[in-house]
From TrEMBL:
Domain Solute-binding protein family 3/N-terminal: 59-277
GO MF annotation terms: arogenate dehydratase activity
Similarity comment: family membership: Belongs to the bacterial solute-binding protein 3 family.
Gene from which the chain derives: glnH
Keyword annotations of the record: Lyase, Signal
One cellular-component annotation, GO: cell envelope
Residues making up the signal peptide according to the UniProt record: 1-28
A Pfam family reported for this protein in Swiss-Prot or TrEMBL: SBP_bac_3
Protein name in the entry: Putative glutamine transport system substrate-binding protein
Length: 298
């Protein structure tokens, strides 16, 4: 069983998001205020702290999405929930500190670590060579590849992408991959995940390219859209990230991942947060990584 969680506090930047918690779902519309709340800076920075310094302070700040269900989102009670959130709560419990969630947007994840606004990023963060130049990743806890969502009555297949109107979230792995490999594609970029899904519903795009885990989660509960391309591109790792050079915190996370692997923690997190969404479509072994691995492989 997943251990009891510590007290959860929203960062100051999440005040507006809490008031609008019901709207912070994948299908919600996004206002300018919502976008600002997602990417806003916290009032105090923490720098690149060691585990000991975090313990001494008594609070850890972790950046996560507030609109990417079922991985990191704010639920109807104004609480952070999801697969990434289970991991963050366990991190705080192991350190014996309170947990402060800081909402981040995809394009702000690196900046929040570089500027010391958070200690750790747990936001479906895919490991890439470009990101490794700016932040340090601990071992992985999930794998992912690309998937594509399109209307059920007009499914877009991989051969159709050259002529399709594509929508993506700015700052994601898909954004970087398309710019490098398919610069001639017709792509519209949005700041937030709920903006992309709204654009898809409004007919402002033919297909949404995202993580296949995200695509399958979005289409699992609707007949309006399908994951018409369930798997393409290279398989990548999802891992926690810390500030560049913060070896002490990264090494501590690697040790924790080994401990959690012995408990099969992420399988339990999958059953709690992802299985209700995926049903029989996705098996734990399709994406769960237990025990991490040495971050030296990155």
């Amino acid at each position: 069983m997943i251990p009891a969680t510590p007290h959860r506090r929203l960062a100051p930047a999440a005040a507006a998001a809490t008031a609008l918690a019901a709207a912070l779902t994948l299908g919600a519309c996004s206002s300018p205020d919502d976008v600002e709340a997602e990417g806003a800076a916290t009032e105090e920075t923490v720098g690149a702290r060691t585990p000991e310094e975090i313990k001494e302070d008594g609070t850890i700040k972790i950046g996560s999405f507030s609109d990417k269900s079922p991985f990191g989102y704010v639920d109807e009670n104004g609480e952070f929930a999801g697969y990434d959130i289970e991991f963050g709560e366990r991190i705080a419990e192991e350190l014996g500190v309170e947990l402060e969630w800081v909402p981040v947007a995809a394009q702000s994840r690196v900046e929040f670590l570089e500027s010391g606004k958070v200690d750790i990023i747990l936001a479906n963060f895919t490991v890439t060579d470009e990101r490794k130049e700016k932040v340090d990743f601990a071992g992985p806890y999930m794998t992912v590849s690309f998937g594509a969502v399109s209307p059920a009555d007009a499914p877009v297949e991989e051969d159709d992408l050259d002529d399709a109107s594509i929508v993506i979230v700015k700052g994601t792995t898909q954004d970087a991959w398309i710019e490098e490999n398919q610069p001639d594609w017709d792509v519209t970029k949005y700041e937030q995940y709920n903006e992309v899904t709204s654009a898809l519903r409004d007919g402002r795009g033919d297909v949404w390219i995202t993580d296949n885990t995200e695509a399958l989660a979005f289409t699992a509960d609707t007949d309006e859209f399908v994951t018409s391309i369930p798997n393409f591109g290279e398989e990548s790792a999802i891992a926690p990230a810390v500030a560049k050079g913060n070896d002490a915190l990264r090494d501590w996370l690697d040790e924790l991942l080994l401990k959690l692997g012995e408990e099969e923690f992420f399988h339990e997190a999958f059953e709690k947060t992802l299985a209700p969404v995926y049903g029989d479509v996705v098996e734990p072994e399709d994406l769960v990584v237990e025990g991490g691995q040495s971050s030296d492989v990155y």
